[in-house]
Specification:
Blueprint (H helix, E strand, L loop, with lengths): L1 E3 L6 E9 L5 E7 L2 E8 L1 E6 L2 E6 L3 E4 L5 E5 L6 E8 L15 E3 L12 E5 L2 E6 L2 E2 L4 H16 L4 H47 L8 H7 L3 H12 L3 H19 L4 H7 L5 H12 L3 H10 L1
Parallel strand pairs: 1-11
Antiparallel strand pairs: 2-9, 3-8, 3-10, 4-7, 4-9, 5-6, 5-8, 7-13, 11-12
Length: 299
Amino acid sequence: MQLEWTALDPCVIFANRLACAPGFAFGPRVIREHQLLYVAAGRGTGRIQSRSYTVAAGDLFYYGPDIVHAFEADQAEPFVLYGLHFALQRAPGLEAPHAPPPVREAGPHEQESRPNRLLLGGDGGPLFELAEHSRPGAAAALQARFDRLVDGYERREEGLALLSSRAQLVALLVVLAEQDQQQRHRAADAGHGYAVRRLQRLLEERAALPYDREWLSEATGYHAAHAARLLRAHTGRAPHDYHNAQKLARARQLLRESELPITAIAEQLHYSSIHYFSKAFKLAVGVSPLRYRELRLML
């Protein structure tokens, strides 16, 4: 199911916090609403349609209408669960005070796999998928949001509490979407970091060669302009500047550790002339190549 954020007008149908008895189990069953099940403590097992899960504190499960699900608490460390039944758009009578929503045991014909995903997005922005199983993090903050939702449901006869519950539900979905984006960005940054390190190694290995912009795509697989932005973001230097720095580092090494004439070093490092090499070296190091070698020999 997919819904734009601007079309979202959710309501809480049922919310509770349950400290399960050892071995407590429910399902296989289906409900007619959407549900979030948050594991605040304990462990056990879960199954949603044909997919089985080892369940632990911090896990968040989502299943939509008529999705078969079942959970069983561990004997030694039973669950503490938050259950939240909700609709994405209000309808007459949904929020009226009533007993817990109807739950129906699932029949054998309902065990087949059905789509179970909720996408929220729109206006050209990124889509947020409320995954069947996730570990959002920020457990204390997330538990506090569920506590507020449970409190609002228990006071649902009050008009203000009813309005607050809607706001809390929207806030919860927004927080989950933001955490999902942050996790995606961290994963992307990790991938970018690997690409940048590959580019750095290539620029270091080819320090003696004339700079070639094609290296950026070769090392990273990205468009050259994007690779250049990544390197600048990670090192503060543009690729050509980074390559020049490596070339000068190689020059200092040759001046220290070899007897090569300065002209030969300039040629080996593909400087266009001894004059250009000396000028670039002095600008970066503060002394001429000859003076640098003399100072090194005096140490």
